[in-house]
Amino acid sequence: MRVRRLPASVLPRIAGEAWVDPDRRAYLRDGVACVPVRDGCPADEDLPERSVYRGRGYHLIGDVAVVHGDAPTKEEIESIVAHRHPRGVVWVKGCTGAMRIPEAVVVYGSAGEVRHREQGCTFILDPTRVMFAQGNRVEKARIAALVRPGERIADMFAGIGYFTIPAARSGASIHAMEINPVAFDYLRRSIAANSVADRVTPMMGDCRGLLSGVYDRILMGHFEAASFLPDALAHVRPGSVIHVHSIGDATAVIRERLMEAGLSATISSRRVKKYGPHTWHMVQDVRIE
Ligand SMILES: C[S@@+](CC[C@H](N)C(=O)[O-])C[C@H]1O[C@@H](n2cnc3c(N)ncnc32)[C@H](O)[C@@H]1O
């Protein structure tokens, strides 16, 4: 593939130019844009064609590839290994119980603890022992962008810090609660790895008994979040925002819980990711009036 090498900043301006090959996508390499050129037009470099991965979907967590759903076939595993050369491939059949513990099988190589980098954060975890939802990337970035420095936030289901770490990096103070000792240990290590210990207070145990004082924002990253809402609602003020996760839209049940607590709120609902054939992982932003 013949390309011209240009500063990335010029990409938006050159899209329609006669020399640009419209059938191939430009891409960034070491901060420089490599723009494919049409036949006969001068180029700076001739690069090997990039192979497009068309195999089974997987998430690379650190250096371990994780597949969900049906058991991967030998061919699917081989194509994942050929694509990114992971240390291991883990098949997560599902996550069980309130602690969302993965039912995991190492189907290639070795697994175990990883250091996973995502959006400037480092997460330490073992994907065979605790869940890591990569499909929530956009939601994590959204929360990090919403958070204002100095906010007091409760993360009621902190896990290994999926929301806690990005929110702390945005300058908020986080009260992070987690009931599973394995996840809690990774949470503490992820806090240290991101140098946010001055902004995060981790506590191990049932969040219902740990919430204290009034929060500006409450993160409820658990599919059963709505049933914990009465506890959360005892710790809000007008203007507080609660992010309630659910399978399917939970607006009606949230309205009921608000009414029982004698509170009113504006609720907006958004999709986080596809969860099943006709089911979505949703998040409801509940702003207390
Ligand atoms: C869905 S997982 C991960 C949540 C994470 N916030 C996310 O969205 O990726 C939910 C976490 O909540 C924890 N958890 C469940 N019930 C809890 C409770 N009553 N108090 C505190 N943590 C709890 C589980 O152990 C698990 O780590």
Automatic annotation (TrEMBL):
List each coiled-coil range: none
**Keywords assigned:** Methyltransferase, S-adenosyl-L-methionine, Transferase, tRNA processing
Q: Which PROSITE patterns match?
A: SAM_MT_TRM5_TYW2
Listed GO biological process terms: tRNA methylation; wybutosine biosynthetic process
Do the record's keywords include DNA repair? Answer: no
Question: Can you tell which superkingdom this protein's organism belongs to?
Answer: Archaea
Q: What is this protein called?
A: SAM-dependent methyltransferase
